[in-house]
């Protein structure tokens, strides 16, 4: 089973296991727990049962996640008046910080500009103040080389692979062509 990172899926898995609150462990529950342990999956169950039966209450509606690090809560809601409770998995409000600025750098030009600094005269450093001055000067030169050979770009585009952007653009063009013509040739390209 191949899962993307991060991944979450859930449903009526009908796998009882004491690890997630059931009073007994069934064969299906044992297999699910073993599979989760081997593949690095986490099993999330609400704190209260999801099914109420004649003989026992059980936790059979579960969520299974992989590398899901976002805050959440999961609850079993007794609102339908049946033996089964709907489960609500609520992803808490969480925003990732946006980068201040994203740059695209021409690394060849940047390297060439830094190579030209190798002609920069190195003075004798006799004091801590001399060392600090030289470090500050070199840092300024590196920052200048970066800014001279970089331009600010849209952060959404900066992290995407150019080959993938080309594939998506071609796919979108093919979709537009098919929608405009309804030609089966365009449909097969999708």
Keywords for this entry:
catalytic activity; 2 domains; two-stranded antiparallel ribbon; Deoxyribonuclease I, Chain A; 39% helix; alpha+beta; 190 residues; Endo/exonu/phosph_ase_sf; Endonuclease/exonuclease/phosphatase domain-containing protein; 9 strands; Endo/exonuclease/phosphatase
Summarize the entry for a quick read.
The chain is an alpha+beta fold. 39% of the residues lie in helices and 19% in strands.
What's the Cα radius of gyration? 29 Å
Quote the beta fraction. Answer: 15-25%
Q: Quick one: how many beta strands?
A: 9
- Please report the number of helical segments: 6
Q: Secondary-structure element order, as H and E?
A: EHEEEEEEEHHEHHH
CATH fold description of the largest domain: Deoxyribonuclease I, Chain A
Q: How are strands sequenced across the largest beta sheet?
A: 1-5-2
């Amino acid at each position: 089973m191949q899962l993307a990172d991060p991944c979450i899926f859930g449903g009526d898995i009908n796998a009882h296991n004491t690890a997630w609150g059931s009073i007994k462990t069934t064969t299906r529950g044992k297999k699910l727990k073993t599979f989760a342990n081997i593949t690095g999956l986490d099993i999330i169950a609400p704190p209260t049962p999801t099914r109420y039966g004649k003989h026992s209450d059980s936790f059979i509606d579960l969520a299974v996640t992989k590398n899901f690090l976002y805050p959440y809560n999961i609850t079993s809601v007794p609102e339908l008046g049946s033996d089964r409770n709907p489960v609500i998995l609520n992803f808490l409000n969480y925003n990732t910080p946006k980068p201040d600025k994203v740059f695209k750098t021409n690394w060849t030009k940047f390297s060439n500009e830094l190579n030209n600094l190798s002609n920069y005269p190195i003075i004798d450093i006799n004091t801590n103040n001399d060392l600090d001055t030289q470090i500050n000067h070199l840092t300024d030169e590196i920052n200048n080389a970066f800014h001279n050979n970089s331009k600010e770009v849209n952060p959404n585009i900066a992290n995407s692979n150019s080959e993938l952007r080309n594939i998506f653009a071609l796919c979108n063009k093919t979709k537009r062509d098919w929608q405009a013509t309804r030609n089966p040739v365009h449909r097969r390209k999708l």
